[in-house]
Amino acid sequence: VQLVESGGGMVQPGGSLRLSCAASGFTFSRHSMSWLRQAPGKGRELVASIGSNGGSTYYSDSVKGRFTISRENTKNTVDLQMNSLKPEDTAVYYCHRVSPPTWGQGIQVTVSS
User: Fold this and answer.
1) How far apart are CA 55 and CA 40, in angstroms?
2) Residue range 30-48, pLDDT digits in tens
3) Residue 99 CA neighbour count, 13 Å, CB half
4) What are phi and psi of 67, to 5 degrees?
5) How far apart are CA 15 and CA 1, in angstroms?
6) How far apart are the C-alpha atoms of 51 and 84, rounded to whole Å?
7) Which residues contact 17 (CB under 8 A, 6 or more apart)?
8) pLDDT digits (tens, 9 = 90+) for 79-94
9) What does the alpha-carbon distance between residue 27 and residue 1 come to, in Å, rounded to a whole number?
10) Dihedral, CA atoms, 16, 8, 35, 60, nearest 10 degrees?
11) 23: three-class secondary structure by DSSP
């Protein structure tokens, strides 16, 4: 089982980034997926999740209206579109298979002027 994130980097406040997670080693279409983040000195925070068929989504209050989670089961990918980024969005972002729990290696997102 492998989850590989891409698309992170540095962006100015108000900018956008799109994270992508490529999954392999399991039947992707049968699993709910999520994105979590961990800022320096803080615990890991659930940002967004999506059901196995993409029909249900969840967003934390801190990102609702700015971030969009999506998935493409034919490509085994789950993406996180992040708009109107704020400095407090700076964190390492992790792709996560909900059950059984499996994590990607994480990717840095830095929002700074």
Assistant:
1) 33
2) 999 999 999 999 999 999 9
3) 5
4) -110, 150
5) 33
6) 25
7) 7, 8, 9, 11, 82, 85, 109
8) 999 999 999 999 999 9
9) 10
10) -40
11) strand
